[in-house]
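Revision sheet: structure tokens.
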Amino acid sequence: MTKTNILKPLILLSGFLFLCALAHASNSLYYYSLAEVALNQGQYETADSLLEIAYRIDPSSKEVIVERLNVLYYLQNEERLISFAEDVLAEGIVLPEVYIMLADSYLATGDAKKAKETLTEGLQQIDDRGPLYLEFYRVALNEGNGTEAMQYLHRVESETNDPDLLYQIAMEYSHLQDSIMLEMTLQRILALDPNFSQAHIWLGDFYYNNKEFYKTIEELEYLLENSQEVTMISMRQLLLSYYFTQQFENVLGMSDYFPLELMDSVQKRMFLFAAYKAHKFPEALKYGQILLEEKEIMEPDRLQELYEMMAVSEIQLQNYEQANDYFGKISDERFLLPHLNIIPFIVNETGDVSLFHKLLDYAELNQADTLSCTLKALLAYNYAKSDSPDSCKKYISEIDLDRCINNYPLVLLSYAKLKTGTPPDSVYALLEMRPERNMTSAQWLGQYYADEEDIENAEYYFSQALEQDSTNLELYLNVAQFYNESGLFEQEIATLEQGVQLFPDNADLLNWLGYSLTEHDIRLEEAQIMLEKAVELAPDNIYIWDSLGWVYYKLGLYEEALNAMQVLIDTDVDDSVICYHLGLIYLENGMKEKAKELLQYSIDVNNNDEAVGKAKEILEQLQ
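Predicted:
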């Protein structure tokens, strides 16, 4: 021991005594306060000396007695503690702490009999017996008498409503690994005092260890919202409970408690996965970039998963080049296979077919014939789209049709064959090989030629499709749409009329046919009847009400037109066509300012060029 260490307690004590001399030396509070200072500095012997003086001045001070007992306990001086406690009892001071600590010291010296005698005497002197029974429990446990010990523990638990004492009991149940009584006691504490932080911490820990994560969340969320005594262990348990219960938004909500610079790799992955699952893709990429800095020490499968999640995140943000780059970094093709539905989209956006070639090599190496067929069809399809007929024909020639067992490769191959000059009858036969034909081969070919703007062939195959599948409502709508986009009004009307004959109570068909007739100012009375029926069939469809109002307008029934538009007036409608119609109807009903307002709104909404152009013309005339 150095000279400084020898002098320090002496200097401290002399300083204390000097201060005491300046104060009223007969006041025990001064010695007690100075003892507290000594305790804070770890000077237990000094504190004991000061508390001894304080006790002599005021032997009835509970604070002084209890504090000196604690100091002697810290010093592990059983002899002095026993002597002091006996002196206190001889003075007639009755405190449960004295009996308990005296009994504990007797027990530490191996005198269990004296410990029990002390506690028995305490029971006769003290009304609140719970703490004494708890010490009886410890004595019995020390003696190896488990049955008697549990009797004392249960007695304390059943007789007390003191949350602090119950907490001590709960800790004993924890040491005994009695999970049922631990849970019940902690719940009882919280029923008595909902703000008892330590009970929430222990109960949360108990539920967490038992994998009852929803209950863990309930306890620790309360703690987080109502207490400052949240431990880092509890925070981690809450975070993991959110994660295990897939409450990913809540995981991300805890990012303020887990600074990025202090996170370990597991936590970074957890936040990455939570952001990914919560569709917070910019955040997912942020955590992913940080994790990539550790890729040299990352397990191979973890790295593949990381590239996979980052690629998908980039796709969601429409960053297709970056997505293609991340998918390209994946060396284990098994992580690419689940994304065969989106890889063609990336290839289409980037024009880079290297992912297809990579997967094709994998398929052929592993003799995965069905996968190989699909990938060759995808390559043929993409080369056909990019006007590379030679490459397209190469992969068409390599495809074994017996291995193409589902619709997807057959449809791709049909497209590729048509683009490279295969006669449509041959492609029709290929389409007939599809195991599932929810669309007829004729309709497929009709749609192909419609997309190619080959009206003659499209009309030919659509006519065949209507003959083959005459009860398909969607087919009538699709064919009518083709004729509408091709400017073939008569064929559009004829198709809709054919559909209405088969589906006379379909509001969509009635509305389309009625509105088309109205727009071309033909058969307006017929259109009125159709649209009135459509409104009855679908009274909540605002577009049908607009059609009805428009046919009334065309018939000169302006008041009826305004009444029909009332549903739209009461609704916030952002549609240039509807606003244009309503503007004209207001105008014919003598409501010029409302008309100008709706025409301007049609222009502002700006989602139909024709309606906006007409609205501008009328508005200029009204200025």
